[in-house]
Write a structure and sequence with these properties.
By secondary structure, the chain is of the alpha+beta class. It has 3 helices and 8 strands. Strand 4 and strand 5 form a beta hairpin. It is elongated and about 90 Å long.
Length: about 180
């Protein structure tokens, strides 16, 4: 892309006598040609992006404008259970829950997540894995100041385990896939 100084030099070399005496509009077509050429040069890079944006809109996916996370984590002693709670920071929807079970849990540490009076991850019962960090997409509408909670139970009678669940909340501004 040419610098401003190169553009000014270009104009000086190509000004007609009529422009030199003060007709400021007679060179407008040349300046417009220059700008159009620059726009046409970037078009091949922009077209694929426009296509991707169109596909996302057709799929009904709109990127959330604001997200917040609530991290529940705890080191559970052998045969210990705990219920952790935190307030939802904004009106919106819980769009995902990520879990982490370290190696050695051997499906003996159970976790469930919910909000208010509703458990939603999993819908019932508990998840219990070993050496895993899955992220599950979801769509749970929530209100600011509502309580989000996480129940963690260690059924291992001999080892402590540090596990976590991360809840991602997004402002409701569209459909999430």
């Amino acid at each position: 892309m040419a610098s401003y100084e190169e553009y000014v030099d270009y104009l000086r070399r190509n000004l007609t006598q009529l422009e030199r005496v003060g007709d400021s509009l007679s060179g407008a077509d040349e300046r417009l040609d220059y700008a159009v050429k620059q726009l046409l040069d970037i078009r091949p890079a922009v077209e694929p992006l426009v296509g991707l944006l169109r596909e996302l809109k057709e799929a009904g996916y709109i990127m959330p404008s604001q997200t917040q996370q609530i991290a529940f984590e705890y080191t559970l002693a052998p045969n210990q259970g705990v219920r952790l709670e935190d307030l939802i920071p904004l009106d919106g929807a819980i769009i995902s829950v990520g879990f982490h079970w370290p190696r050695g849990c051997n499906a003996l540490v159970e976790i469930a997540v919910g909000h208010g009076y509703k458990q939603f991850m999993p819908i019932s019962g508990f998840l219990a894995l070993n050496d895993a960090s899955p992220v599950y997409p979801t769509h749970e509408n929530v209100k600011r100041e509502e309580t989000a909670w996480c129940v963690m139970d260690n059924h291992d009678g001999s080892e402590k385990h540090h596990v976590s669940a991360t809840v991602t909340i997004a402002v409701n501004n569209g459909k999430y896939s």
